[in-house]
Amino acid sequence: MIEMTVAGIALDATNRRTPIVLLKDGAGRRALPIWIGDNEARAILMALENQRAPRPMTHDLMANILNEWNLTLERVVIHSLEDNTYYAVLTLRQGETRKEIDARPSDAIALALRCDCPIWVMEAVVADASIPVDREADEEERQAFRRFLDSIRPEDFIQQGRGMEEDSSAG
């Protein structure tokens, strides 16, 4: 799993200005766009900007209930992507008891921001749906790997192989 943070909300210019929540990895190299509804975008933006509504909104209410019942939102996991729909679970803990609850990723993200809990995404989802953010760093990494491959000689592998044989015969 890859821990990701909310980079912000954007509007999809090609799809009737539908809101997108953008998650980014810790290195800032990949972003995961998740299309969401207007209400969920507002809820996420309010949390990002530390704004409070005069009365509790749905995600605020959920966070208040968790707090009052001594439930901890340990993490959010976006675990799969099927037919352009993301799936997530909330991991809740009360004492020694843990439960996983199915949730829409947008609701899970809005709640995670209010509860200060980590957002994790399965590697397969990141591989399938993320977009590169830092193309220069990706290209630099490819060039460094090419230089490494160009510098390797067959003798380098033979030397390593002999050393391994000697190590295994010593035991």
The proportion of residues forming helix, as a percent range, comes to 40-55%
Radius of gyration: 22 Å
Mean pLDDT: 85
In order across it, which strands form the biggest sheet?
A: 6-5-4-7-1-2-3-8
Main beta sheet strand tally, sense and closure? 8 strands, mixed
SS elements, strand count:
8
N-to-C span:
37 Å
Structural class: alpha+beta
Order of helices and strands: EEEHHEEEHEHEHH
Q: How many helical stretches?
A: 6
Using the alpha-carbon principal axes, give the shape.
globular
* Low confidence ranges: 161-171
Describe the protein:
- The structure is a single chain.
- The chain has 171 residues and is an alpha+beta fold.
- The protein contains six helices and eight strands.
- The protein has helices at residues 38-48, 58-68, 105-115, 123-129, 135-151, 154-170; strands spanning 2-12, 18-25, 30-35, 72-82, 85-94, 97-103, 119-121, 131-132.
- The protein has an eight-stranded mixed beta sheet with strand order 6-5-4-7-1-2-3-8.
- A hairpin with a 2-residue loop joins strand 4 and strand 5.
- Helix 1 (38-48) runs parallel beside helix 3 and helix 2 (58-68) packs across helix 3.
- The two termini are 37 Å apart.
How would you summarize the topology of this molecule?
Layout lengths: L1 E11 L5 E8 L4 E6 L2 H11 L9 H11 L3 E11 L2 E10 L2 E7 L1 H11 L3 E3 L1 H7 L1 E2 L2 H17 L2 H17 L1
Parallel strand pairs: 4-7
Antiparallel strand pairs: 1-2, 1-7, 2-3, 3-8, 4-5, 5-6
Helix pairs in contact: 1-3, 2-3
